[in-house]
Structure prediction request, 485 residues.
Amino acid sequence: MNNTSVMEGSEAVAVAVKACRPHVISAYPISPQTHIVESLARMVAGGELDSQYVRVESEFSAASVISGASAAGSRSYTASSSQGLLLMTEVFYASAGMRLPFVITGVNRQISAPISIQVDHQDTMSLRDSGVIQFYVESSQEAYDTHMAAFKIAEDPGILLPVMVCMDGWILTHSYERITLLEQDEVDGFLPPFQPVNSLDVNDPKSWGSYAEEDMLMEFKYAVHQAMQSGKKRMKEIFTELAQITGRDHGGLIEAYRTEDAEFILVAMGSVTGTVKEAVDELRSEGKALGLIKLRCYRPFPHEDILNAIKGARAVGVMEANFSMGSEGAVSMDLKAKLCGQKDAPLVVSFIAGLGGREININTVRNIVEELEGVAGSDVPQLEPRWVGLNTDILPKGVE
Amino acid sequence: MEITIGAVVQGGTSLGYKTGTWRDERPILDMEQCKACGVCVSVCPDSAVHVKGETYIIDYDYCKGCGLCGYECPADAISMVKEEK
Ligand code: SF4
Ligand code: SF4
Prediction:
């Protein structure tokens, strides 16, 4: 296994998807996702990939096509970003309820208005309640590997849910990285053909997502939640199995980076975690007990692993490239809820950083850590999120 | 119904559900006036108009009496009459 080449992040995803042998791919263009489906289109047109490639008139149709294809027993895939993902939302809720195991790449991009094509996590995180499993990746290599795991996780008979692999637009999709590829027989060994539990059959007609009234709907929803919750163990096993083949261990549902004995811990997701690791190393060498939790899996929320990793820490700073209007960052809300009532729970502070592609460099992380240390001493609950690098000089008149 | 994965159930069960009992007006098709254009077949939301050879037949088991066929028929071949039991 020594097949290494330099390629664009989007190409790495397309190559990974191709190796997973999808029967059906639907595509509707939107930046910064477009290069992925363009690459796949080239592969299909060139005869390298034997898939039904369906060009549709909207993202709603793109999601509907793979939903129907999945019900027909096909391994199916699409990719989208931003507004496109929002347009797919209705179908995602339905697909999760119908337990259809397709894979989507959610290439992260800000949501309008104001219109912007820059990266943050608002788009994919807005889908958090839909029942779609979500992974976030740091590098294109991790994106490549995670897509292999995504199909296997989605199709696991104990899980059977759509899986979204979220990767930062531009920063990952449009930059070039050294990618080590698996051989096709290694992928085939890891990911056998899709074995649907139910599939559409004209000779034995079935109906998906059938009507449920007040005496049953709750039980269906509970079953989806349980598939996610009890699926956590299986997801970790699948990641471990893949790591044994690739020789690359990106972690399970989280990666705990230098968190042992850490007094302060940052939580972050996506490509920024690479920068945060650098900052952690620098600050560690200056004697600060700092660590990072890279949140690889956002849904299901891996609170067991996080709680375990932050044991003994004084304060946790959550770096959020998302914002729940009228409240705070979404990851902080989850974490605070799970910590509430726990003995010796560390202080949790929500840092809104990187919205709309605002740069986060090592100095930004240093400033966050400094602020975290400052409030950690005060022992006052931090109810308001902190907006990192907010330029108050340019705010409209009357906005404080 | 039991809780199945994905709420997947036996399909085609609407065949056994005779929506015709909802009807308060009955479409009467007069083959004398019918021009066999097929409009009624395509507009019926319940697929309750069938073509049998040369004849158009309304399936009263499923016709719910919405009146669309009568409204759209260009030959005025369908009239709606009060359903009485
Ligand atoms: S009345 Fe409505 S339901 Fe009945 S046959 Fe005409 S169109 Fe169909
Ligand atoms: S719409 Fe009227 S004329 Fe046309 S087939 Fe039906 S009944 Fe006949």
Observations:
- The first helix of chain B runs from residue 39 to 43.
- The mean pLDDT of chain B is 93.
- Chain B touches chain A at residues 1, 3, 5-13 (CB under 8 Å).
